[in-house]
Amino acid sequence: MQRGESTEIAAIASRDLAKAQGAAAKLGIAKAYGSYEDLLADPEIEAIYNPLPNHLHVPWSIRAMQAGKHVLCEKPIGLSAAEAGELIRARDAAGVKASEAFMARVHPQWLRTRDLVRTGAVGDPRIITGFFSYFNRKPENVRNIAAWGGGALMDIGCYPITLSRMVFGEEPQRVIATMDRDPDFRTDRYTSVLIEYPGGKQCTFSCCTQLTAHQRMIVFGTTGKVEVEIPFNAPPDRACRILVNDALEEMPVCDQYTLQGDLFSRAIMDDGPVAVSLEDARNNMAVIDAIVRSAASGNWEKP
Fold it and tell me: Within this chain, do residues 136 and 29 fall inside the same structural domain, yes or no?
């Protein structure tokens, strides 16, 4: 975000002043605070980026809004669709801008994929498949703490959900899912999902926190396909590639976090729409909620 044309990173806050000062010195940030409250009290700060653990997304975003700050909050927006609704009400009461930080949705490779699909490059789009995995079994890692919103679905399963919604341009009708939970952490370590969209269109994906690292996403249509080679953690230092009906397309080199930061800044300065609205974020959480219910019930569930 520091490399953005419209974004200035003016301050950083930690619960430990020494840690904040160390990070500020390393990153070239002018101000450091030893509490989040002190940062929110600074009248020169216009907006905050909230990358805290999942269970702190909504509480601290609401406090920032109440302090008059615009909020760019990491995904997933909260722990449930109901929490996302609380955030919407706080945004409206405060009159500020707020957006979910789904950086992949602003990357040119996904904007291109969406446009290709919607202009008929694959014929009638029918199925989207996805896979996202890594291996992390460290007990102290926030992704392995159930009470903090850990687990594969919340951390990485949210990506194929939001991107399939973006590409299809529709909301899911029902979902069915299975989960395998870590015996010690009780977080889901392997989750597989089938999402049904209107007209019988489908998204299927698996997300895993205890498998070898891999990611891929493919849109299949009646006459073609689009395959996104590195769909989620797009590298900022080289061109990303998508395969369109066996023809390779290279995207311009870019950093999706830089793009995300500038888009949010411009939405504030121009009083325009944000890239990923809180209403969209709430709809994504509603799908996640339904997946959790389905894994418990063994039945189809409606978002």
Answer: no
